[in-house]
Amino acid sequence: MPEILINIAVTGAAGRMGKAIVAAVQTNPHTALSGALEVSGSPALGMDAGEAAGIGRTGVKITDDRDRAFKKAAVIVDFSTPEASMMTLEEAVHLKKALVIGTTGFSHHQRERIKELSGSARVVMSPNMSVGVNLLLKLVHDAAKAIGSEYDIEIIECHHRHKKDAPSGTAVRIAEVIAAAVDRDLEKVAVYARKGIIGERRPEEIGIQSIRAGDVVGDHTVIFGAPGERIELTHKASSRETFAQGAVKAAIWIADRESGIYDMQDVLGLK
Predict the structure, then answer these.
(1) CATH number of the domain to which 89 belongs
(2) Is residue 16 domain-shared with residue 84, that is, in the same domain?
(3) CA separation for the pair 152, 203 (Å, rounded)
């Protein structure tokens, strides 16, 4: 682990995830909060980021000035919107800052742009920073590889009522991992909804179903079903702290890496 503090700036610092990340940065002995960014017009502007997060004063005020927020940072942690994340990525490359992106819902065009910047960017990008979820990705890959086409594959994800994208980025990533393991084109076999007389399930289908309810932080279940039995692998998050702590772990890891786009599998040594 590093012997010096790594300065971290947090975007969306007054949001649900932003507050959790601010707290995680402050409680980690190897990191320090150096900047906190919010959108113009946010009622949190001018507040101490720590007080907004409920952990006491940090001496870092929330600002809408990107230059000010990012100036002292070695790493920027961004959980925001695809559009805002793309702007932050461009700035991180220009400022030679490392970046951790937990945003989901990127378009195909945005993903292609991210790939274009991979030669000059230092980025950890993952739809889910949880250690447990990334272990789940490893497990579902191995399970799918072992059973091949013998079992039906379904993914069910449940999140809070405020989540704007569906399916979740984590569910999509799970589907991508499984599709690669069984050598299928996800674009051709993914099924996101079923209604009416749809006929029998096609053997090659990978079902991805979304539920939105209450304040669920994030549940993901993968079902491998066959006549007479089924295997279910489930991860349930009860607090955003697990994602925030994973993001800080990623920030520490990426701080001194070479240029490239990495994910949490790299950070955790699961590849």
Answers:
(1) 3.40.50.720
(2) yes
(3) 6
**pLDDT for position 270:** 86
Q: What is the pLDDT of residues 85-138, one digit of tens each?
A: 999 999 999 999 999 999 988 999 999 999 999 889 999 999 889 999 999 999
- What is the value of pTM for the model shown? 0.82
pLDDT bracket for residue 1 (50, 70, 90): very low
Is residue 159 domain-resident? yes
Residues classed as catalytic: 159, 163
Number of domains in the chain: 2
Judged by average pLDDT, the poorest of 6-20, 28-42, 111-125 is: 111-125
Range of the structural domain that residue 136 is part of: 131-237
**198 lies in some domain:** yes
Residues 6 or more apart whose CB falls under 8 angstroms from that of 188 comprise none
| 18 and 44 housed in the same domain | yes
